[in-house]
Design brief:
By secondary structure, the chain is of the alpha+beta class. It folds into 2 domains: about 70 residues, Arc Repressor Mutant, subunit A; about 80 residues, Alpha-Beta Barrel (ADP-ribosylation fold). The protein is built from 6 helices and 9 strands. A 3-stranded antiparallel β-sheet has the order 1-3-2. A hairpin with a 4-residue loop joins strand 7 and strand 8. Helix 1 packs across helix 3. The longest helix is centred in the first third of the chain and has 14 residues. The structure holds ligand HQG. The site of ligand HQG has 18 residues, from helix 4.
Length: about 180
């Protein structure tokens, strides 16, 4: 096995599949898939990953703490996180009763006036457990705020939700009436 920096490679794959496929001459289909061979060719030829193989991609996906990517039948995609202009089509599905969102204290005031917005991404990212929300919030604040989303009621009243992976849920804008801010 060659010495590959898997963390760096995983980040680069996320970058290619979520944010900048054109830099790799990739075209995502409407669900975000691209051919694995195309991705490997781009990584090998233009981006310095000379010996990267499909086994390396499988290793990253299986060994990751989070299920960020999916590789099936010669195709690969990011499961969430996209910022590309063309919206990735996700099938909506009924969420759990409660979902969580970890954010920074400094965003609270804006969230309380505008609801949860996707900001730089295509969807709002939520999680079905508090621990994940804490981790997400800690990227931006050492004492993150954990918001509780009244997801089932929002769904019943027409807000769309989409499954990212087994922990990450995606949604369109979440209006403030479905958001419980801890006191
Ligand atoms: C905030 C990582 C002002 C929102 C994570 C968040 C996640 C508002 C930030 C995934 C707002 C957007 C996504 C409003 C929301 N006014 N700020 N109205 N509404 N915000 O990074 O959820 O490790 O796009 O609270 O684990 O932090 O990369 O979203 O703080 O699953 O696989 O605007 O990215 O996954 O930030 O993180 P982001 P996120 P990976």
């Amino acid at each position: 096995m060659s010495f590959i920096n898997y963390l760096k490679l995983s980040k680069e794959i996320s970058y290619a599949l979520r944010h900048a496929p054109w830099e790799y001459e990739l075209e995502l289909d409407e669900n975000g898939w691209v051919g694995v061979e195309q991705l490997l060719t781009a990584l090998k030829e233009n981006n310095g990953w000379k010996s990267v193989t499909i086994e390396d991609l499988e290793h990253i996906i299986e060994g990751s703490d989070k299920k960020r990517h999916e590789l099936i039948d010669g195709k690969i995609r990011a499961l969430y996180g996209h910022s590309v202009n063309k919206k990735i089509v996700k099938e909506s599905s009924e969420p759990p009763v409660i979902l969580f969102h970890g954010t920074a204290r400094r965003f609270l005031e804006l969230i309380e006036s505008n609801g949860l917005l996707p900001k730089g991404r295509q969807y709002v990212h939520l999680s079905n457990d508090i621990e994940t929300a804490i981790q997400v919030g800690k990227r931006r604040d050492d004492k993150p705020i954990i918001l509780e989303i009244d997801a089932k009621r929002a769904w019943d009243e027409g807000v769309r939700f989409y499954l990212g992976n087994d922990k990450v849920w995606l949604a369109d804008i979440i209006p403030i009436k479905y958001i419980k801010v801890p006191s």
